[in-house]
Amino acid sequence: DKKDKKDASLKEQDKKDKKDASLKEQDKKDKKDASLKEQDKKDANLKDELTNLKDEYSSFKEKELKEKQTLIDQVERLKRSEREYELKVQELMERNTQLKSTLEHQEQSSERVAELQEKNIKLKQKSSESISKLQEENIKLKQQNSESVSKLQEENIKLKQQSSERVADLQEE
């Protein structure tokens, strides 16, 4: 009779031990599930952050391309203006040559010849001054273009570094 009670008590203890083990196992599983959910949240946040970084970088690249295109367009306009001006100067010089030729064939007073030569000198001076001004403007625009490109390149490098650092941080996590 004592043996039966002892066996029953041992069986009861075994049931209790199994139940305790089962509860501990369930606790471990619940903690693991909670940990996985937390990790999923972190992963989702990191994914969102990476997507935002990619969007920000794409936006920056678009802006940079637009600014570059604007500068390229400005330089092209300047080149066109310079070519047009050179053609005008050439036309003026040809006209000047024609005037000289016409003057040589005509018999006019030396006063008239002197007047035309003075006008020619003034036109050459004006042409030289205009060419100098255009060249100065062209140099300034080239410097501005160079500075803008340098700034954009520096910003691009910084963004690439930040992106690399964030990706590295994300990978570490």
Give an overview of the whole structure.
It is a single chain. Helices cover 97% and strands 0% of the residues. The protein is mainly alpha-helical and 173 residues long. Helix 1 runs antiparallel to helix 2. The longest helix has 104 residues, at 2-105. The two termini are 63 Å apart.
Question: What topology emerges from the helices and strands here?
Answer:
Elements lengths: L1 H104 L4 H63 L1
Helix pairs in contact: 1-2
Concise summary:
By secondary structure, the chain is mainly α. Helices cover 97% and strands 0% of the residues.
Share in β-strands: under 5%
**Largest β sheet strand count, sense and barrel closure:** none
User: What's the count of strands?
Assistant: 0
The separation of the N and C termini measures 63 Å
Q: Write the H/E string, N to C.
A: HH
State the helix count. 2
- Rg computed from alpha carbons, rounded to a whole number of angstroms: 43 Å
> Low-confidence parts, pLDDT < 50 over ≥5 residues?
none
Task: Choose one word for the global shape.
Answer: rod-shaped
SSE class: mainly alpha
Mean pLDDT: 89
Helical proportion, percent range: over 70%
Question: What key phrases describe this protein's structure?
Answer:
97% helix, mainly alpha, 173 residues
